Description:
The chain is of the alpha+beta class. The protein has helices spanning 3-19, 27-45, 49-62, 66-78, 82-94, 105-120, 208-223, 229-267, 269-274, 285-317, and strands at 126-132, 140-143, 146-148, 156-158, 162-170, 173-181, 186-192, 327-333, 336-342. The protein is 54% helix and 16% strand.
Amino acid sequence: MSCKLGCMALALTVAAAWTGVARATDDSAKGAARELANEAKRDFDAGRFEDAGHKFQRAYEVAKVPTVAVWAARALAKCGQLVAASELYRQATRLSPNDLWLGDVQKQAQADAEKELAELQPRIPRLRVRVEGAAGNDVEVTIDDVKLASALYGAEIPKDPGRRRIVGKRGGDEVEQTIELGEGEHKEAVLTFKAAQAEKPAIGETDKPRVVQEERREELVTAKPVPPESQLVAASGRTQRMWGWVAVGVGAAGLLTGAVTGIVVAADSGLRNDCPNNNCPSSKSDNANTYNLLRNVSTAGFIVGGVAAAAGVTLLLWTPKHESEPQMALWLGPGSAGVKGVF
């Protein structure tokens, strides 16, 4: 429908409506409202939707008929005010016939309102506001400076597309979040508050227990710091190297013991004569006992010394290298052996 035809149709509709209320409204009010509706239609066809919406709504306040409500809703929808437009569509579908209803024009407007409302609904964004860290009754929430009822916290709220500013206040605490809503989007704003601080002690009470508790907590935090990985590796390397040198020392002592007792056995001709081929007769028990003891000590010394020395060398070879490695040395003396160093 062209702008001219549309204006004529709307003018006829409004004029017909005002004919039925001549007794309730004076001629000046009827003429002003009729002209306002015609101007609104011209603004709508010219793309001036904001001006058209304001004028249609003013005309609707005088003439509560579906035709004016539908045109006002269309203008608001063009301006992005989808929530207000949906409410006007709903009002148009719920209006009851009155003195302004003539013919089937208003019934057709109600059918149009129901259809256009169904098409508009999926375009309306939904916003959910959730409060964390505080009781809902303790927090005041506003969306674009409009207070939100606490009963609606956590529920989806229809909002117009665009940027929405959500602010939550609890006493002196304030949490703010900004969300951009597009047509048909469902988004959530979470307002997180810090845990409430403990109340101060009453007059006359002491803060000493609290101070002591805070000091103990600080000691627990600072007494056992987590060492860096390099320090852990270094400590492990020092321990392994220490035990490596200890094992080498034990091995050296065992080998030395075995060697000394072996030399004593080999050098003692009396023992060799009394025990030929390492077999001692029972008649010479003292010599046999001495010989067997020295022989066993020598054998055990070589075994223990060999195993310990091999283990110590293995530990030393596989010790992680570090700048602060312990300084150790193996020493041997007449009839003795050991390890010295700084760990």
